[in-house]
Structures are given as structure tokens and as C-alpha cells.
Write a structure and sequence with these properties.
The protein is an alpha+beta fold. It is about 40% helix and about 10% strand.
Length: about 140
Amino acid sequence: MLVLYDGGCGFCSRTVRWLVRHDGKDRLRFAASQSAVAAALLAGCGLAANGGGAGTIVVFRGVGTPEERVFVRSTASLELLGELPRPWPAVGAVLRLVPRVLRDAVYGVVARNRHRLPGDNEACPLPTPEERGHFL
């Protein structure tokens, strides 16, 4: 899975680091939404034209294959939880019971206020040597 995230958001960067720590099966890869890789992927799936990738998490499953799928907002978050070890897939399954419109509303509140959260930074921190393999 490829995860596009806001590299200029401290909350987003901390979330990515949390995901890297919990990615026991080494299935997740990350790219800042400001990168050239992200721009090409977003344009390819039509999200760049309407700003769908700006300020939101975008998850690609099966990039470049006929089975490619794209997830955004709360559904992207739930897809990520499903890739982590227990208990996170169960947490994601329970949250899927909440209607998407409500999940996305809560996601929107967090997304709009993420730069106000403590520890926000101007740029994505450099990954440690152990984390580098997770980033494009």
C-alpha cells in the first residue's frame, strides 16, 4: 500500500511514524503529497484536478496494476488499520460500522485543525535510517 500524506503537517508526520513502527509485515510505503510521485499518482486517478488529494490522506492499493484501488479520508485510515497487527484491524472493523458520511465528518474536523495541534512543523522530519525503506 502506498500512503500519500501532508509532509508539512506535524500531526500527519507523527501518524506516519506511528504507522511505520506498527507495520510489522513491511507492507506500507509513504510519500509526501507535495512530492512529484504524489502529483503523478493523483493526476492519474483524477484527484489532482479537483483538489481531492490536498489536505487529506490518500491510500493506493495495488498501484500500477489492474486491481489498483484508491481510498481517501476516513476509508483510507480504516484501510491502513486493516494492515496493522492486532488489535488494529478489529478497531477498523468496528469503525466501519459507522456510516462513512459521519466518519468523514469527524475526519474533516481533524483535518481542518491538524495544523493547530501541538508540535506542528513546517516540513516532514527526515526518516531515521531504519525508516528510510518505507519512504519513496
